[in-house]
UniProtKB/TrEMBL annotation:
Gene3D superfamilies: alpha/beta hydrolase. It holds the Pfam family Abhydrolase_1. It comes from the Bacteria. SUPFAM superfamilies: alpha/beta-Hydrolases (SSF53474). One of its GO terms (molecular function) is hydrolase activity. It comes from Rhodococcus indonesiensis. This is Alpha/beta fold hydrolase. The keyword Secreted does not apply.
Amino acid sequence: MTTRTVTNGPVRLHVVEEGNPAGPTLLLVHGWPDTHALWDRVVPELARDFRIVRFDNRGAGASTVPRDVADYRLELLAGDLFAVIDAVSPDVPVHLLGHDWGAVLCWEAVCEPGAAERIASYTSVSGPNLDHLASWMRRRLRDRRPLGPLEQAVASAYTVLFQTPGLPVPALRWWFSRHWPAFVGFFDRSDPALIGPVAPTLADDMVHGLKLYRANLRRRLRAPRERHTDVPVQLIQGLRDRAVRPVGYEDTEKWVTDLRREPLDAGHWSPRSHAGELAAATARFVRDVEARHTARTPAL
């Protein structure tokens, strides 16, 4: 394992590299309230065949913690991701695996113009494209089919509290950060032993990460954009995910040229509770994409 620092303007990102240096580069992106350590159970399943790169997002772990809410906008986080890609694999596109807000920011990146030149594939876990989600909700309501949007709205009710400055901070700092494995085990109906150990920065990461919700949810859900991608996408659908409901991905084929759906009988924190299954699905997809690329590349 080696570490480095990648800069994007004033933001310094803590980056960890490990695995097979001769393998395809697989970049792992965590969400709230995690750090790169989210992937500790996934990495050993992939390290023999892939070069693994993971990093702490801005506001988490050992990376820079910006103060302003506006500094957590998705376009800036996508800029961080591209800075890491340019630093670790400037000449060869990388494969992405993102979870929760890490998946949301990966969606932002793969829908950028020219993304397919820098990103070879994307495996999305428990984090939607907010523009796609908002467009789907509007279509469902126009069609007078509100049950799907209502199901997701109930699952996302906690985000209303997260967008209220100051309100959730004491609960996060003084209760949830101290009982996080037990809470996630209860929430996901999984073994709490699979969740820990947690990062020493967890309480701070929880609070700083609230700015992700405040900077992005309302502005994206109020005014969704047309966001398409030609990057091959694998959608891991956690069938027991109580935070991101599978029904919200109903329209994803509209936006993704090359889409594969992979059901997983897991809750929200599948990188911890179902690491082997998630790693196997990711490896299969990456190998398929690599094989297709090789078949299209003319021999010299």
